[in-house]
Amino acid sequence: MEDRARTLxxxxxxxxxxxxxxxxxxxxxxxxxxxxxLDLYGEDIRGRAYVTxxxxxxxQMLRPDFTxxxxxxHMREGAEPARYTYAGEVFRRQEHDPDRANEFVQVGYEVFDxxxxxAADAEVFTRIAGxxxxxxxxxxxxxxxxLKAAVAGLQTTAARKAALMRHxxxxxxxxxxxxxxxxxAAVPPARAALLAAADPMAEAxxxxxxxxxxxIVRRIEALxxxxxAAPxxxxxxxxLETLLAVRETLPFALERLRDVAVDLPQITPAVDLLEARxxxxxxxxxxxxxxxxxxxxxxxxxxxxxxxVFGFYAxxxxxxxxxxxxxxxxxxxxxxxxxxxxxxxxxxLRPGLMLALQETGQ
Amino acid sequence: xxxxxxxxSKGRLMDKTFDWFDRHGIRLTRTxxxxxxxxxxxxIAGVALVxxxxxxxxxxxxxxxxxxxxxxxxxVHEKLPRWEQQVEEIAPLGFxxxxxxxxxxxxxxxxxxxxxLDAAAAAFRAEHGFRLRIATKYHRxxxxxxxxxxxxxxxxxxxxxxxxxxxxxxTAEAIADITSTGETLRANHLKILSDGLVLxxxxxxxxxxxxxxxxxxxxxxxxxxxRIDH
Lengths: 362, 230
Hints:
The complex is a heterodimer. By secondary structure, chain A is α+β, with helices and mostly antiparallel strands. Among the domains of chain A are: 1-135 and 343-362, BirA Bifunctional Protein, domain 2 (2-Layer Sandwich); 156-232, no CATH class. Helices cover 47% and strands 18% of the residues of chain A. In chain A, the strands form two sheets. Chain A has a nine-stranded mixed sheet, sandwiched between helices. In chain A, strands 2-4-3 form a three-stranded antiparallel sheet. The longest helix of chain A has 19 residues, at 2-20. The two termini of chain A are 21 Å apart. The model of chain B has no long low-confidence stretch (mean pLDDT 92). The interface between A and B is large, with 40 and 44 residues. Chain B: Pathway: Amino-acid biosynthesis; L-histidine biosynthesis; L-histidine from 5-phospho-alpha-D-ribose 1-diphosphate: step 1/9. Chain B: One of its GO terms (molecular function) is ATP phosphoribosyltransferase activity. Chain B: InterPro entries: ATP_PRibTrfase_cat, ATP_PRibTrfase_HisG.
């Protein structure tokens, strides 16, 4: 109980620190409508969030994070630009590791600002870093926006690009798709037989269920079109592979990405943004020469991050979850905005972990 | 105290379990009336028979209320997270074989692999405005399998029975269920995805890692393990 009281005190201090930086404190309900979260995150969220229900409101989830309700609140009533802070419990189902907390306190800082993306990214990163100063942490950074730009600009069909884009956050399937589109993976025999068949529906039997015969025929047409499309070229594939493998301190990473942009010119605006962000971080006193950048960082998180991403990890404590994480989530505001959108970037801290690290350090 | 052995309380699973123990010189019998779940053990001292529903045996093992239990691999994996730490697999019993698989309508000639299912799910969601529904009672196993293999845009809907009928009834587009011969699937115009095997299951004897076992129980445990050649 004492630990919890101290965690809450620390959380209140952190929230006050963000308020002093100009953020408005906000509260959100603990129970969130499950439908919206399921729609955004898919079935995976059920593996991460506690679901409960009543006869009146149907399925509800115990808040797995604050981002979604804060974005909703802002889209509903917020004036621009806006800065918010919050502190409270979030709940995460744990089915594999009993040492991971299923309930913990989070403090967050979110910026909704159209003016200057690089400056807003740097502002959030340095505010979070400032709150963590003195702790033995290692910062990791990345940028999903560069990967998205690379995919969006590939010289291949729109259908292939959409499929790759959909799986940016599932590296294994992304890889499998890429190998297939590049002609590196053999066509499965069943697929080859289907494409060769004069009337693929001949042996189909009765069409049952909601997926109609027309939908099946449309997909076969799509598969035929895909089979006829030229493979993704070797130089694009090599460019993507080099891009995904970039892992350097920020200035060297930038140099490597400029090299990649020779083969994949579509990433140039995203790399320009990275360079502007590096400048904005340096202006705020961040030692960018030693800041790590990893092009694949953030791809396995379930969040909606689609640009700058970062995390702070306890040195030599791979067993601990990150003490802070954050990033840009413009796409989430699009998904929730009902036609509206606003560039947004934010981060969260775990005061409980911060206290634990402070104690082991002493 | 006696060593407690949990066995499915009815049907072929119970009969075959009794036969299996019989072959190892341990005679299990149901006593009393047909409706009474009581049993006796002959041929080994210090062991008591507990008749339970197969679905409850994983939980009883994990709680340490029984020392041994017979139930399917599927139920242990579904109901006990980190099952290796809670129970130990002593012996597969060679019956009750069934596979947990993912099946789709046979008419989906364009869907043969999980890769196809994923693509069909994306198109289905765009067309119908909701995620492709997969009916199952094995939520955890199926979700983890589909997450590992990178399938998106689906949702699991609960089905505790007659799962094969959900597609025709339009409460699901695909199913994840246990099958042994595939007969019911074929009768319901369904086919198994070529890489849609989630888990191979069979009736298995498990030992609880948490059940207290002291004094004479330890001797009974050693004797039981010796008799079944473990």
